[in-house]
Amino acid sequence: EAQVTQNPRYLITVTGKKLTVTCSQNMNHEYMSWYRQDPGLGLRQIYYSMNVEVTDKGDVPEGYKVSRKEKRNFPLILESPSPNQTSLYFCASSLYAGQHHEQFFGPGTRLTVL
Amino acid sequence: LAKTTQPISMDSYEGQEVNITCSHNNIATNDYITWYQQFPSQGPRFIIQGYKTKVTNEVASLFIPADRKSSTLSLPRVSLSDTAVYYCLVGDTGGNEKLTFGTGTRLTIIP
């Protein structure tokens, strides 16, 4: 089944404890991205990747890192999480970049930073 | 990127046809119009996409007037399961690597 998977689905952590949220797609998509969703603010893009080893900042990249060593994986790294990073996170992929191409979203990761 | 404007929320009764309009006054020649649907605690999913006139699929219809400065997503005979947030996006096939979803329209279906 074609899909985007994220792990973990739920995570509660404390300030400053490094964490990684994994994202994997099995559709051979070139474009992958991360979003966070907060009440009243909609979906905001954190980072995106055009292809392997090519990443760039979205609208809200501060406090996050990403890597794209393999085409299928695009982990989101929080080196020192803070409470303002408590949010619902979505990973997405599409065949290529551009809004013309359908985005496929993962199930989401709900992160709470205490 | 073309900026879009949608109503923040809408209510409708079951069985009615619902029309959600999106304004995109500065749409560019190469831009497509795409709509996504998001249920609570789930990722958005693609509904429909169009460039001009009318597009219809098994879920919805998309009406785009000749000037393309707005578009209307039409959901026929809605049910409670259509309660969701609907996002309108405008962009082209490439060059705009950043994607902007905005806050969308929260549609609530009333029994």
Structure description:
- The complex is a heterodimer of chains A (114) and B (111).
- In chain A, strands 2, 4, 5, 6, 9, 10 and 11 form a seven-stranded mixed sheet that branches. In chain A, strands 1-3-8-7 form a four-stranded antiparallel sheet, with no helix packed on it.
- Chain A has strands at residues 4-7, 10-13, 19-25, 31-38, 42-51, 54-57, 65-66, 76-78, 87-94, 104-105, 109-113.
- The model of chain A has no long low-confidence stretch (mean pLDDT 94).
- Chain A is an all-beta fold.
- Chain B has 111 residues and is an all-beta fold.
- In chain B, strands 1-9-8-3-4 form a five-stranded mixed sheet, with no helix packed on it. A four-stranded antiparallel sheet of chain B has the order 2-7-6-5, with no helix packed on it.
- In chain B, a hairpin with a 6-residue loop joins strand 3 and strand 4 (45-50).
Write out key terms for the chains shown.
heterodimer, A: mainly beta, globular, B: mainly beta, five-stranded mixed β-sheet, 9 strands
